[in-house]
Amino acid sequence: MTTAVIVGGGPNGLAAGALLAEAGLRVTLLEAADEVGGGTRSVEAILPGLLHDHCSAIHPMAVGSPVLRHLDLERHGLRWRLPEIDCVHPLDDGTAGVLLRSVEETAAGLGPDGDRYRALTAPSVRRWDALAEDVMGPLLRIPSHPLLLARFGLPTVLPAAALARLFRTPQARALWAGVAAHAYQPLSHPFSSAIGLGILTAGHAAGWAVAEGGSQSIARSLAAVLLAHGGTIHTGVRIRDRREIPPADVTLLDLDPGQVAALYGDRLPARAAAAYRRFRRGPGAFKVDLAVAGGVPWTDERARRAGTVHLGGTFDEVARTERDVTEGRMPERPFVLVGQQYLADPARSVGDVHPVWTYAHVPHGYDGDATEAILRQIERFAPGVRDRIVGRHVTRPADFAAANPNFAGGDVLTGAKTVPQLVLGPRAAVDPYATCVPGVYLCSAATPPGPGAHGMCGAGAAASALRGLGIRAAWASGQERHQGSRT
């Protein structure tokens, strides 16, 4: 029987393993931590029963992921839950940009910017089911729907700051800033619109969903698929030398490129090894989980019903903070993301005490304490919140890295989303998953389409590995049209 080893059990390693096992390979997955999931884990860090997501928390790209749909995770226990309002971006004057599931309802709330917002998003949202496969895969391939992809892709090459000029109102501009800031890049850079437009389109098509029972439910469902197809999972296995990896016909690495170079540097061609070693890391995350009695008392009532709240002020303010953290400066008022997953999944709460998930964008490797800066940003838009906080748990950039080496320096995206790395992955190659070592493939979020719990990086690597073996997969998708060179 053909064999495969997966090193790393994040959502991409799990998705790759499930697809390979489905194709008939005998799959062994090795995970360094005591449980699989990587960023898609959940913890009771403050109070028993009060459930916080460790890293990945809100999943607009995962709920409509082609590979997660193919794997039918609902059969293995996954349930998606949607908040009443997807996202709110409050401003100091008491107004806010509000993102709803419906394009029409969102546009209606944006006043004079409604028509522009509708024109930007609606055509791609209507065809998202057809478009998702092309958007959520490597760019250097023959697309299934070239005209659709071109219509979606043309605005993504623009800097987010340029696209913001479409909008006249501060509310629409701020809403766009908060979504675009998910790229952890200066909003003046080319392609800084790409991740934001992807999130908006996928979110309108499928919602800013959370996983019932925490993001750990995504990992557990993926693991269940792998096990159902005869795969095996071993946790607590940290690979420090490639000789510790069991022999197999194919090996897939859910690791960042630096770890791949450390393991296979003497077998990689010099150019490939150099590319992996100089892979650029992005800014970090500083996370503060809160236990809040009665919930956050947002000034804007709609934020009290929103699964996600973006805190950063106006477009110009968010743009300054994103530039600062990229250049290594800690802003006084950082961009802060707040997750209120319990609104869609009430079982995460304990009575009237609710889990509130927050993190700030900080410079790579930041070793200071951003707790007060985060609390000040929340207090700015929710006066009196400190009186309701009954517990907190802090995760610094170094803590992220210690728990998961893919998150070096607190870089939870596994790499800076610069133009070359966003488009090509860690090295210039037609096949971003092939490592130049025969039978060895990279499947982490360092490869296209990038970070998230969608599993599509794993799907791309699995498709590449199966092509190399001459096996046609049940996962018969646009991945088959990828013109992969394995050298």
From TrEMBL:
Pfam entry (one): NAD_binding_8
This protein's name: NAD(P)/FAD-dependent oxidoreductase
